[in-house]
Amino acid sequence: MIPDSPPPHEFDGRWQECTEKVAGQLEAGCRLPVNELLLPLTLQVAASPFLRGDSLGFWHVGNERHWLPRFHFQRTRVVKHRYRLGIFAGIHGDEPAGILGLMDFVRELDRDPELGREFELWLYPLCNPSGYLAATRESSARLDLNREFWCGSAQPEVLLLERELRERRFEGIIALHSDDTSNGFYGFARDRLISEQMLAPALAAADRHLPLDRNEIIDGFHAVNGIIHSAYDGILCAPPEQRPQPFEVILESPQLTPLSLQRQSFVAALSAILKSYRGFMAYGGDI
What we know:
The protein has one domain: Zn peptidases (Aminopeptidase, 3-Layer(aba) Sandwich). Helices cover 37% and strands 21% of the residues. A ten-stranded mixed beta sheet has the order 1-2-4-3-5-10-6-9-8-7, with helices on both faces. By secondary structure, the chain is an alpha/beta fold. The chain is globular and about 50 Å long. Helix 4 packs across helix 8.
């Protein structure tokens, strides 16, 4: 006999306790095993009818086995068109705020029925597991994986993610990062319409928790009100041949600020993007 799921208030308490324990250990510099890091999401999969989890695949580095976790959120199973978005975190192993922020956001999706309406969300909280375990930006191959996309890379993480990006053909791609050289929250959007319609509201929402980086030069790029219209080559993005191209947004938190505020900023920014995109498409927006 399968036991009933715990009452919502009981699960909330259990989830909150687990999440804060994970966050506390990360903030103290500890690196939990991947299964312990992802325990808040695993608990939610067990309790939520809308969330499921699996893996993109696995590979070995010496005697170590690594895998890429994937989660899927869809509020109902009714067959209809949904906006299919991919949200990615942890491509740099020394940036745990995005991982935790994505976990918090998934919990918010369960709490707020309106937030995820009309969306099919594919979530990738840990895109560089070997880098995470070593607390390094690079993977175990000593490569910055966020410079390896669509250039013939042989890195297993990149190959798995490129295959996923081709198969899913996302209508939107959002990547979560942290910057230890910035004093505020900021974002990238190469398309100016996207920056106006989605990134600007996302930054305004994040600004309620952390100040924006309003410098004219951020990360070597020209910026206006925390928005950058350029990007590095080789970053995680849609396949070059995909038509139409999806909207693409990168959110960057100031890494040296309290982890709790970075998490809140990511949740606020992601929520704002979903609301803005749904409203934009409702008015016949053609991205």
